[in-house]
Design goal:
The protein contains 28 helices and 41 strands. The chain is α+β, with helices and mostly antiparallel strands. The chain has six domains: about 55-75 and about 440-540, no CATH class; about 85-270 and about 280-410, Cathepsin B, Chain A, CATH 3.90.70; about 550-660, DUSP-like, CATH 3.30.2230; about 705-840, DUSP-like; about 850-865 and about 890-965, Phosphatidylinositol 3-kinase Catalytic Subunit, Chain A, domain 1 (Ubiquitin-like (UB roll), Roll); about 995-1029, no CATH class. The strands form twelve sheets. Strands 8, 13, 17, 18, 19, 20, 21 and 23 form an eight-stranded mixed sheet that branches. Strands 31-30-32-33-34 form a five-stranded antiparallel sheet.
Length: about 1050
């Protein structure tokens, strides 16, 4: 291919001066641009063919314009690709692959991250009783249903109708998701979604015309259980009943689901420190605790939740349990009561925060098992649903004695599905007709191209008397079949290609037009805007001008190439200092101009911007001399190259290499500054050496000078220092280049009325019930009087700081220091506080939002601390080193993010989620598993009622409260799922699950939290929201 290299070199180089339009350039052949044997890293086309781009400055090169590569030449031609996928591929097939009446179940489209929705909807759809209830639901005539609820139920009915009758292989759940306002881009927990969905549907079913629907969700999915505690001494029992929509079973330590289920119901022995307080014996006794399921209230559909996601306290992250567990086809609840497996919801993935949900479900209509993976539905064997599994997350069992479900007489929205099916088949016919027509046009175009371009030479010869100049853009348009794809006429503006005399300009003709023989032009039939005749294209006047410009351009390029060569060569003779950054920018721009490199556009723009500045401007100091320590930022060039730069660019200052030295004044100033800095550091070190008090204050990171805030000495005064001032002082001592702080002052603690306002963080420290955390809003620091006196001696300011003195557990005074007496005692004056500003700040602090309150988990029968004196030492973080000897486990402590207006009941639910993270590995799972309504919350030794708000109870940020389970609740090692609505994932925060209206007389639904309340309740038992009238 040596000939090809020579030819491309002549085309890509300087155009011949005797051939301004390039008509004499040799024509390329097809094999020059499409070679199966051409080595090297060239672009590849279909079937491994290597291709070269079109020779852009050769008007006789007619290849490399997209043939065999782009447009109609693609594996899927662009016109056919524009039609979209074949709609017939979406038609449901039967379980054996053919189209008949025994169709495969319908899949569901994934809307982004909604596989958890799709999987559970498939499970519910295959529950014939649930499906029938959904189809039969109609709003009653006596009660007006909220439009939002009506829309949600209609969306579910419409979705079920499409899943049952649609001819498409998958249905679109977009409408259903929209009515629920789900976040389609966020993966959610399928178990949580199921509980929220069923609870929400219950609030809709109560509006049904059919009274049997009012409690359908509860009757079909909810069971009853009892927590029984038996004293082993007197055999007296304490019982507490509850309900469940699913049972959460442990995976670790269990080989099969049946084993885990049996363990869930097995008795737990309470002994040693865990002994039970028996009211009959009036003391702690050994006892057993056990869950019993009410056999008479076992639901037709039993849901088991396998606890695959746990919190690792070492990494404080949620992790997935990868242990396998055996799944059997039947579950024995008790003798004579068995369930059969009907669905398995799987979670694929190794982490708890990502992965994919699928469902393996038994289809009662086809008597077969299917795996649902969004739009993909595949028949599987029954053995695929059972056996050992590392992915099973939820199991759905159906009672073996459940009655058969009668078919539905009339299914809503069936007529819409039928109309959609007819439209689908019409779309198939239209798509097939368009595909056939386009395929015929594409084949015709390909045959025409092969005849015109590959069988014979398409370019006009140099001696041809007549030919046409055709636009390169039109050639690409025709060769790639763009007109077939768009059916739009080709339009091009030739005004830019024409010179002032109305002819083709030489520079534009070579790069934007091709010479075609009349034979090819007749077939292509280009529009008038894309063709110029050989008889009228040449402009003699413009050719002479073009030749002169081309000659000057080549001289300029040659000069640039010469300068680049000088830059690479070592300077000879006299040399000059030049900014390395500037000269590298010039090099990049020059290489781009001479086509030696194709730099990144961003870097090219930065280099061009640098060339606009004066040479060496970045090297000079304020005295106009070379800055010290800049040797790595400049290089030297020879006198010839420097003269070229000085002639064509601005120069800040010429710096001869041998005569240029660093600025002596800058060196002296730097030396003086360094010496001053060293002296300041030495002075600081001397201060810290002479003053252990300040050295300790400088290193201290706590908010106060006490190792343990519960050991604040009484009747000892401490000074208040502005947090901003103390922070600046520490920064100044860290870096002596930072200015010293101003004199000390009490102005930061004064209000606009000239009185004083106490910093809230100081009040928290002085009355703290636990170690307060550092918060951005902290206003002051507490220091000892010695620390304050030494800082005042260094920086001046008032000698009468604000002081605080703790006189008792709840007695704290705030005063202004007047003087220190010779015997060491102090004379203080009680502060005149501004009642108005204090009240405003207290209200602002009490009306907190998104702040943390600390929770300490108490064991059963453990005494509740009263105030701060009864503080549990084990629960308090301490800076002292703990012993490694084994002993009683400390109380778990964690923070709960809450608002001041949260009720105690709502706070318990928030604490339940946080307790899961704190308790998963700390032996306090009872706080995660017991319903919050069976736990007590204490603050300062007083039990708080569920209806009280945190603000009303006097709880402020960083306060400590105590959570303790009731003594008659079960706290076994098995997790017990709470009733619907007890937990909420943040992903469902703005969904419809948080705004359900009340239901009729059987139950009513809280409009704030959707909790199902008893008819006689006047306020929500969870969030205290009043019952709507």
């Amino acid at each position: 291919m040596a000939k090809l290299k020579r030819k491309r070199g002549s085309m890509e180089g300087a155009p011949g001066m005797d051939d301004p339009y390039g008509t004499l350039l040799p024509a390329c052949r097809i094999e020059d641009h499409h070679s199966a044997k051409k080595p090297g890293p060239k672009k590849k086309g279909p079937m491994g063919r290597r291709r070269l781009d079109n020779c852009s400055e050769n008007p006789n090169c007619l290849f490399g314009l997209g043939e065999h590569i782009e447009g109609i030449w693609k594996a899927i031609p662009v016109p056919l690709e524009a039609l979209g996928k074949d709609p017939s591929e979406t038609i449901r097939t039967d379980v054996d692959g053919s189209i008949d009446d025994r169709s495969t179940p319908c899949g569901l489209r994934n809307l982004g991250a909604t596989c958890y929705v799709n999987s559970m909807v498939q499970v519910l759809f295959m529950d014939l009783a649930f499906r029938k209830a959904v189809h039969e639901w109609q709003p009653n005539d006596s009660t007006t249903v909220a439009p939002a609820l009506l829309g949600q139920m209609h969306a579910l009915q419409r979705l079920f109708a499409y899943m049952q009758f649609s001819a498409s292989s998958y249905a679109d759940p977009q409408g259903f998701s929209n009515t629920l306002n789900l976040n389609e881009e966020m993966q959610q927990d399928a178990h949580e979604f199921t509980k929220l969905l069923l609870s929400h549907l219950q609030s809709i079913f109560v509006f049904s015309k059919d009274r049997s629907h009012w409690t359908f969700i509860e009757d079909h999915f909810r069971g009853q259980m009892e927590y029984v505690t038996t004293c082993m001494t007197c055999q007296s029992q304490s019982r507490s009943s509850g309900s469940y929509y699913d049972l959460s079973l442990n995976i670790k330590g269990h080989a099969t689901v049946q084993d885990s289920f049996n363990s869930f119901l097995a008795p737990e022995y309470l002994e040693g420190e865990n002994r039970y307080f028996c009211s009959s014996c009036e003391g702690k006794q050994e006892a057993t605790r056990q869950i019993t399921l009410d056999a008479g209230a076992m639901p037709p559909t039993l849901t088991l939740h396998l606890m695959r996601f746990v919190y690792d306290m070492r990494s404080m992250t949620k992790k997935k349990v990868q242990d396998a567990i055996g799944i059997s086809r039947t579950l024995s609840v008790r003798p004579g009561l068995q369930y059969r497996l009907t669905a398995v919801l799987n979670h694929k993935g190794s982490t708890a925060h990502a992965g994919h949900y699928t469902a393996t479900v038994y289809c009662p209509e086809l008597l077969d098992w299917f795996c649902f993976n969004d739009t993909e539905v595949m028949r599987v064997s029954a053995d695929d649903a059972v056996g050992s599994s590392k992915e099973a997350y939820m199991l759905i069992y159906t009672r073996m004695d459940a009655p058969d479900v009668a078919p539905v007489d009339e299914i809503p929205f069936a007529d819409q599905v039928e109309a959609s099916n007819r439209q689908l088949y019409r779309d198939v016919d239209v798509w097939l007709a368009k595909t056939t027509a386009l395929t015929a046009q594409i084949e015709t175009r390909k045959k025409a191209y092969n005849t015109l371009f590959e069988t014979q030479a398409p370019a006009a010869t140099a001696q041809a008397p007549t030919y046409s100049w055709v636009s390169t853009a039109f050639l690409k348009h025709w060769i790639q079949g763009t007109d077939i794809a768009t059916a739009a006429p080709f339009v091009e503006d030739l005004s830019a290609a024409q010179c002032e005399h109305g002819h083709l300009h030489p520079a534009f003709a070579r790069t934007h037009f091709k010479r075609l023989s009349p034979r090819v032009v007749d077939v292509l039939a280009p529009p008038a805007c894309a063709v110029v005749s050989s008889a009228t294209f040449r402009c003699t006047a413009c050719v002479e001008s073009w030749l002169q410009d081309t000659l000057e351009s080549h001289h300029t390029q040659q000069e640039l190439l010469d300068q680049l060569a000088l830059l690479e060569a070592p300077p000879m003779g006299k040399a000059f200092v030049i900014s390395r950054k500037w000269v590298n920018s010039w090099k990049l721009v020059t290489q781009h101009a001479t086509k030696q490199a194709k730099p990144n556009p961003v870097k090219l723009a930065e280099a061009q911007s640098m060339l606009a500045s004066a040479i060496n401007d970045d090297l000079l100091c304020e005295h106009g001399q070379l800055q010290p320590q800049k040797r790595k930022q400049f290089r030297t060039v020879g006198a010839g190259l420097w003269q070229y730069f000085a002639t064509h660019f601005r120069v800040a200052k010429a710096l001869a290499a041998k005569k240029t030295a660093e600025c002596h004044r800058c060196i002296a100033e730097a030396s003086t500054l360094e010496e001053s800095h060293a002296q300041a550091q030495a002075a600081r070190d001397e201060v810290l050496k002479r003053s252990p008090v300040l050295r300790k204050l400088f290193k201290r990171r706590l908010l106060h000078p006490f190792e343990n805030i519960f050991e604040i000495p009484h009747d000892v005064p401490f000074a208040l220092v502005d947090r901003v001032w103390l922070t600046r002082w520490k920064e100044h001592f860290d870096d002596m280049d930072i200015d010293a702080p101003p004199p000390l002052d009490v102005a930061p603690f004064q209000c606009a009325h000239g009185l004083f306002v106490l910093p809230h963080n100081v009040k928290e420290i002085m009355r703290a019930t636990t170690a307060p955390k550092k918060r951005p809003g902290a206003e002051a620091e507490i220091v000892t009087l010695d620390e304050y006196a030494q800082m005042q001696a260094l920086y001046g300011g008032t000698t009468r700081p604000l002081v605080t003195v703790k006189q008792g557990v709840d007695a704290v005074i705030y005063a202004r220091l007047r003087r220190t007496l010779p015997d060491g005692t102090i004379d203080i004056r009680i502060l005149a506080l501004c009642d108005e500003c204090e009240a405003a700040r207290d209200r602002q602090h009490l009306d907190f939002r998104g702040e943390e309150v600390l929770v300490v988990l108490l064991r059963q029968d453990e005494p509740v601390p009263a105030g701060t004196e009864g503080m549990i030492d084990d629960a308090v973080p301490s800076v002292r080193r703990r012993s490694n000897r084994s002993g009683r486990k400390p109380n778990v402590q964690f923070a709960v993010t809450c608002d001041a207006d949260d009720t105690v009941a709502l706070f318990k639910h928030k604490a339940q989620l946080a307790a899961l993270a704190a308790g998963a590995y700390c032996g306090v799972l009872e706080h995660c598993d017991v319903d919050p309504s069976h736990q007590q919350l204490y603050f300062r030794g007083v039990e708080l009622p569920n209806t009280s708000t945190l603000k009303a109870a006097g709880i402020q940020p960083q306060d400590t409260v105590y959570l303790q389970p009731s003594t008659d609740d079960l706290v076994g090692d098995g997790a017990i799922a709470t009733t619907a609505g007890s937990e909420r994932e943040q992903g469902f925060r703005f969904s419809a699950f948080h705004a359900a209206p009340p239901a009729p007389a059987t139950v009513w639904v809280c409009s704030a939290c959707t909790y199902l309340n008893e008819p006689e309740d006047v306020a929500c038992d969870i969030c205290a929201e009043p019952k709507a009238e």
